[in-house]
Amino acid sequence: MVGHPPTEHRVVMGFVSEPITPDPLQIDLPRRPVLTFWVVAVALEVLLGVAFLATGADAAIEEGLAQAGLDFSSDLLTAVRVVVVYPAALLGVTLALAQVAAPDLAVLVVARIRGGRTLLNAVGSRFRPWSKEVGAGRGIRIWLTVVVVFSACNIASGLLHGTLVADDFTWHLSWSMLALLPVAMFLDAGALLEENGWRGFALPVLLRTHGPVAASLIVGLAWASWHFPVKFDAFLAYGVWGALAYLGAFTVKIVAISVVITFFWARAGQATLLAVAMHGLSNDVARVGGLVDGTTWQSSAISELDLAVPFIILALVLVPYANRTGWGDLTTLAREGTSDIGRSPGAATLPSDRLAETALPHAGAAPTRQPRGDLMAFKFEIFNETTGEYRFRLVSGSGEVVVTSGPYATKADAKQGIKEVVRAGLDSGIADQTGED
What we know:
The structure is a single chain. This protein has 15 helices and eight strands. It folds into two domains: 8-25 and 338-427, 2-Layer Sandwich (Double Stranded RNA Binding Domain); 33-325, no CATH class. It has helices at 33-54, 57-68, 76-85, 90-100, 102-113, 116-124, 135-164, 176-186, 189-206, 212-226, 233-267, 272-283, 297-325, 352-356, 411-427, and strands spanning 8-12, 15-19, 169-170, 291-292, 349-351, 375-384, 390-396, 401-404. It is α+β, with helices and mostly antiparallel strands. The strands form two sheets. Strands 1, 2, 5, 6, 7 and 8 form a six-stranded antiparallel sheet that branches. The radius of gyration is 23 Å and the shape is globular. Helices cover 57% and strands 9% of the residues.
């Protein structure tokens, strides 16, 4: 899925030089790191799934749930209660959790292949509630927004369920749901044990060669398809076409959620812990949006689309907003303590307040302005969109996107646009067209 890092140019004396050769700080990854990661994650999931079935672990877990008087739930509290009540379920619970953790385990395997401790440190450094550049005040506001937005999406899905799949839907609204929100956010096994893979590793790597929307779509497809082996029973229950309809609806949901997660994740400074919370809220073990027990492929597929619709609408709102105002931290995967992969020590530093005011010369360009008040190193990144067009963005030393260009038909046009931006930015002042004092 991912090849080489994006072309990077050094700003020297008002022009763009030849591409920079990545410096020794760049992490040495496999040639196709995300594809390698995904293949390993799927292989681990399948192998652990075979072991799960071969040991009769599923029957032991069902017995443990029955003795504990619990319904199945993906949170760790339920897992602990099952083992306490029925110790014979320990092997089954361990295998089930290991299977869920396959994406995180796959990062360890990739690091073993190439990248080592440097890669693990880079992934681990993102496991935070927010970055230090974002700060606690803004970070807390982002978290509160996430809780409200994801809960609202769950409630909207519940309303759709009640209309479209009422016969298979149960919804018991109570204040206890509020108490279960922290469980959903921090103790959901799928969220806690997967996100170092999806948002800690795969997404930052994809940002080396793709824009945030394209990277989110690829992560969403990888994330959804990774689930397919454990959903093989859909083919037994629904038949081939019914299963394909259900899995298609499931994929649409996951991809939409992936785009929304990227928006808040980047705004919080690539905060994987926030991604864990969003993943858990979307899994909704608190049952804020009720529960559908699909008895047919139609009800199962419709229920997945019900879950997808609020996130699709949200993504359609957030993406244009982020394109206008900036996505936040789109730093590619680098060593802990380095903001940008491959940045040359000799790259020029320019005042961000001047560069943020630079007028893009391309007719379709739309600058994203995020002025900052200090001197820092900048770089231009060229990336390609899913439409086949090219764009470039100007990224500060802290990973903030200062300017994003409009679309260009060819990479050569995008490179020429960079040259014109640098020339205009260094030789022109600020043209205030607001009419304000």
